[in-house]
């Protein structure tokens, strides 16, 4: 397990590892999954799934992988909730206590230290809010993928300086939490790649219908993805990110295509409508 965690931290290499151990007279079996948080380079998330049916991975690998992704999303929700309800509240209390010193008599040295603490605390609060949002955007659960994809690019554009348009060409979409999460994570990762690696100035995010389902497109005007990464041979952070996006979409019987357009790169994630029993 330690070597997998080390590879995750050093090279962003995702992993799924099965652990077996005795506990209270029972044999416990679980699968631990680790991956980089989409849209970041130095934040990672570990989640686990109790594996009561060891044959399920072989019998139905797509459903098995979807279960892993669902367990991962539950862990993200838990962390986001804890950041919002606990960490953010403690930081707000610290800020309130710090403000009580603002009007007190302080030496120039103490005043400088106070201002530095105030600036640092504000930066930490912003980071916690952003991380909580990236882990579990509230509008995704409340209002659906259209609202989430309208909101996220605006915030990302503000933080990155990129010009980003969102075009919803799909019309109303019946709620499908697994599909919505997959599309949202693909958008996070793809836009992060555009910002960090494409040397682009403009990107367009499109959500549209297909004959069998829905498609999410992220197109930029950057320098394009290297050929070896397009061929699935990339082991750097871009290649690993594309691999993670592809696995997430394939878990829903979808496809991820990345191609050069002549003026940039187009990432297309296509996911079919699912039957009620899927």
UniProtKB/TrEMBL annotation:
<keyword id="KW-0808">Transferase</keyword>
<protein>
    <submittedName>
        <fullName>Histidine kinase</fullName>
    </submittedName>
</protein>
<keyword id="KW-0418">Kinase</keyword>
<dbReference type="GO" id="GO:0000155">
    <property type="term" value="F:phosphorelay sensor kinase activity"/>
</dbReference>
<dbReference type="Pfam" id="PF02518">
    <property type="entry name" value="HATPase_c"/>
</dbReference>
<dbReference type="GO" id="GO:0046983">
    <property type="term" value="F:protein dimerization activity"/>
</dbReference>
<dbReference type="InterPro" id="IPR003594">
    <property type="entry name" value="HATPase_dom"/>
</dbReference>
<feature type="domain" description="Histidine kinase">
    <location>
        <begin position="183"/>
        <end position="275"/>
    </location>
</feature>
<dbReference type="InterPro" id="IPR050482">
    <property type="entry name" value="Sensor_HK_TwoCompSys"/>
</dbReference>
<dbReference type="InterPro" id="IPR011712">
    <property type="entry name" value="Sig_transdc_His_kin_sub3_dim/P"/>
</dbReference>
<dbReference type="Pfam" id="PF07730">
    <property type="entry name" value="HisKA_3"/>
</dbReference>
<dbReference type="GO" id="GO:0016020">
    <property type="term" value="C:membrane"/>
</dbReference>
<keyword id="KW-0902">Two-component regulatory system</keyword>
<dbReference type="InterPro" id="IPR036890">
    <property type="entry name" value="HATPase_C_sf"/>
</dbReference>
<dbReference type="InterPro" id="IPR005467">
    <property type="entry name" value="His_kinase_dom"/>
</dbReference>
């Amino acid at each position: 397990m330690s070597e997998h965690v080390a590879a995750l931290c050093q090279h962003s290499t995702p992993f799924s590892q099965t652990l077996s151990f005795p506990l209270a007279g029972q044999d416990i079996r679980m699968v631990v999954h680790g991956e980089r948080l989409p849209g970041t380079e130095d934040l990672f998330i570990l989640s686990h799934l109790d594996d009561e049916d060891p044959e399920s991975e072989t019998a139905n690998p797509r459903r098995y992988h979807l279960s892993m992704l669902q367990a991962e999303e539950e862990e993200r929700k838990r962390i986001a909730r804890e950041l919002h309800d606990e960490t953010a509240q403690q930081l707000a209390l610290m800020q309130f206590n710090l403000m009580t010193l603002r009007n007190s008599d302080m030496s120039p040295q103490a005043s400088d230290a106070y201002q530095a603490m105030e600036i640092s605390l504000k930066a930490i609060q912003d980071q916690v809010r952003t991380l909580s949002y990236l882990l579990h955007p509230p509008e995704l659960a409340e209002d659906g993928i259209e609202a989430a994809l309208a909101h996220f690019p605006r915030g990302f554009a503000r933080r990155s300086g990129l010009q980003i348009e969102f075009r919803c060409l799909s019309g109303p979409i019946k709620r499908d939490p697994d599909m919505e999460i997959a599309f949202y994570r693909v958008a996070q990762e793809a836009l992060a790649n555009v910002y960090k690696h494409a040397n682009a100035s403009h990107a367009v995010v499109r959500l549209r219908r297909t004959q069998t389902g829905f498609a999410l497109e992220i197109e930029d005007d950057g320098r394009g993805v290297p050929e070896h990464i397009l061929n699935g041979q990339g082991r750097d952070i871009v290649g690993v990110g594309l691999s993670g996006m592809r696995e997430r979409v394939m878990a829903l019987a979808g496809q991820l295509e990345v191609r050069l357009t002549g003026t940039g790169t187009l990432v297309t994630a296509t996911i079919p409508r699912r039957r009620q029993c899927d």
